[in-house]
Design goal:
Rossmann fold, GMP Synthetase, Chain A, domain 3, 2 domains, five-stranded antiparallel β-sheet, about 35% strand
Amino acid sequence: MNRRVRVVPAVPVAGLIDALTTALDGTGPAVLPVGDVGPSDPGADVPDDVALLVRTSGSTGAPRDVLLSAAALRASADATHRRLSGPGHWLLALPTAHIAGLQVVLRSVVAGTAPVELTGPFRAESFLAAAGRVPADGPRYVSLVPTQLIRVLADPAATAALVGFDAVLLGGAAAPGALVADARDRGIRVVTTYGMSETCGGCVYDGVPLDGVRVRLDDDGRIALSGPMLATGYRDRPELTADTFRTDDDGTRWLHTSDLGRWSKGRLTVLGRADDVVITGGEKVPPAAVERLIADLPAVAEVCVVGVPDPQWGQAVTAVLVLHPGAAEPDPGTVRTLVAAALGPAAAPRHQLVLDGLPVRGPGKIDRRGVAALAADRLTH
């Protein structure tokens, strides 16, 4: 049997909650949430077990619909609650056209609670107002991206409100170690997450897989994931589904990601996407490793490392910084020396730029292509 698909606006959230509730219990059609601009035509039917379709651009920018079953969504929500302090009340501060925001709604539906929605642009003031409306008769949770956490930490009242949450899931983009350490030093219970639409959102918390999740590294260092929260596949993309989701001889189904990783003291460290690697002078430089070093500098609020075209080196490693208010730009020579000592001369940034903010996409992920284009433009004009 096939199941109908219903296009549902990502806002207002009340309508999305009703649609997801019936999709999960099987009494309603599968749900395709859309933002301000989205399809009015739901497209073809989907397999009967699919409850949710998440539109994602993937790493190539080509749109695709990820098919998520009700069983996978419930497995993800249940595993999250087991890792945290059980079902509770969620503050919704992320867009619900993307998996991170959708999971806040879904976890609330599974818990039998209603998420408290933050309205308007994310600011310290709007967060503070929304946090005050989250019930206190059970665990209180919120999911944020690093840029949002930075804004909260800049405001003492908002920071105090965030301390009152039992867990702050931090994902959507690589979280600088200095940012996480700063938040934890202030008493905020930060839990870093790793996952994607194809895993119903985060499935590795603080480097440790959730219950039922298995992680392995392929021969080229790419991360592969297995577990009950894996997606069914991609709608109308059988070749992509077959290439991304593969089954071992023992029947274990694996999602082969485009992310590089390594194990350190029993925890997974994500090194960034394989296609983000900068090749300079024939050497491969993983941007995430360079970003972690630069992000620890006191003046740096955010950093993105990209490659820009260079006639001599092919690509030149370029560090694009956002500074804390009033902070002076770190000396480029000092930054080069720091990075070269830790990662080798090839990784040392040949260029350093300062911007007021980094371009983002989706739920707050840094738009690396946008950053690279800005950097190339600045360096050639």
